[in-house]
Each structure stands twice: as C-alpha cells, then as structure tokens.
Amino acid sequence: MKLCRFEVDGQAREGALGDGQVVARDGQDDRYDLADVRLLAPAQPRKYLAIGLNYADHVAESGLQAPEVPFFFNKQVTCVVGPGADVHMPRVSKLLDYEGELAIVIARRCRHVSAEQAPEVIAGYTIANDVSVRDWQLRTPTMTIGKSFDTHGPLGPWIVTADELGDPHDLGIRTFVNGEQRQDGNTGEMVFNCFEQVSHLSEAFTLEPGDVIATGTPAGVGAARQPFPEGLLKVGDVVRIEIDGIGWLENAVVKEPEGYVAPAAEQRAGAAPRLPAP
Fold first, then answer.
1. Per DSSP, what are the bridge partners of residue 272?
2. Which of 52, 91, 159, 251 is buried deepest, with most CB atoms within 10 A?
3. Pairing verdict, β 80-81 and 153-161
4. Is the pTM of this model over 0.85?
C-alpha cells in the first residue's frame, strides 16, 4: 500500500494510491486523479532523526573515519516540506547541498526494540532529501542547526508500506541535479542497516507513530565535487531523488522569500495517514 497526504480544495487529507488515483482514507470515500491533487509530506514527525556517515563511499569522500557506533542528529520538524515544494537558498549562506536518502516511518510507540524486532514497528518507507547548509553544519560540534533550516526536509512522495516494499536493504538510490546524475548507490551498502538504526535509537528514547529516520546518503554529495563549491546547489536547480520500489521526490531551489516563517504545527497538520500495524 502507498499512503499519502494530499491537498484538494484547500483541505489537507489522507489517502492511498492505486491505478493513478488517490482514494481518501479519512472517512469519506472520495477518489481523485493523482494529477488533480497536491501531494504533501506523507509523514508529520514529532521527531526527525538522521544518521551521518552511514555509507562507506560517502565516508571516504568526506575524508573522515567511519563511526564505531551510529552517529545521529536531529532535523527540526519545521524543516519538513512535501514533494514539489520549494527549497530555500538561505539568506545567510550559499553553501547549500543535497543528500538523497531512504527514510523509515515508525508505526507505533516502542522502546528497547531489538534489530530482529524492528520490522514489527516500521510502517513503511519514503524518500528524504537531507538538505544541508554546509558552513552552518560544520562550524559547530553538532550538525543539527545546519540540517534544520526551514524547507530543508523534503519528504515524499508517499509512504510505501513495509509489506509492499519488501527488503529495504536492496534498493537502488539515485540523485539528479538538473538531470545530471550525482549519486548512484544501493541501500545494501549501509554501514548500519535500517533495523539496527531503529534498535539503537529505541534504546535511548521512545519512538512514536510518524517519527522519521533518514538512513544516510551514498557518495556524490555536492560538497565533495571539485572544484569546490561548484557542486553545491544554486537558485533554480532542481533536485530529483529516485529510490527503487518507492518512486521519486523532486524539489526546486529558490531564493528565500522575504519574511518567510514556517507554518505553525496546527497549520502543518491537516490530516495524517493512519499508519497500519506491521
């Protein structure tokens, strides 16, 4: 099953996809052509976690050492936007980068989950662009602020349930900027796999329905391209991330609008997909 959030007639609703149509799942049996609705971010996390340096080739291009334990940081939830939404070039930096990633969506409240049990608490998977402001990311000991600018958390286009996607560790993942391929990896190349990540996080705190875990990016980020900073994003660029079995997520970079403030939580909320028990 593919679960989504969508907007039609100014109203945010929840739905499921099939045969090019969106079927409402919020108590009204409405059906729409996919082309006639605007897809929203499919998850509304209370927590958005992301792992760093989780593909060996990305570790190598970064000139760093692979961490001995999973290395996580937060992305503030006000960064989340949906497919097709604008990504802002910040007024305070021009060092904007992309990172194509598979993202886990949690199905139910859980704690102390073993890696073997992890599939039981995962609702499904979606695509994430871990947009990064490199100078803000690297000038402090923690990366959170450089990973959390408004609009820098595109998610979508939908959640593919775990039963439909199958093994999340054998998926091709590709990133394109203006049609030029920049990243070409496979989720089987993760240092810490999806289930190990869920287990590790759940040892520290309770995971909740809708929480998102971005599982790392393969080699090919803009900051690693030479000459620096030619590989970084510019206003007008379009980033497209494709993951086998899920689809594609595309967002364009625009100049940060004057006076932009992220929508309040109640405005972002709308309808949220009811996540099935695995």
1. none
2. 159
3. parallel
4. yes
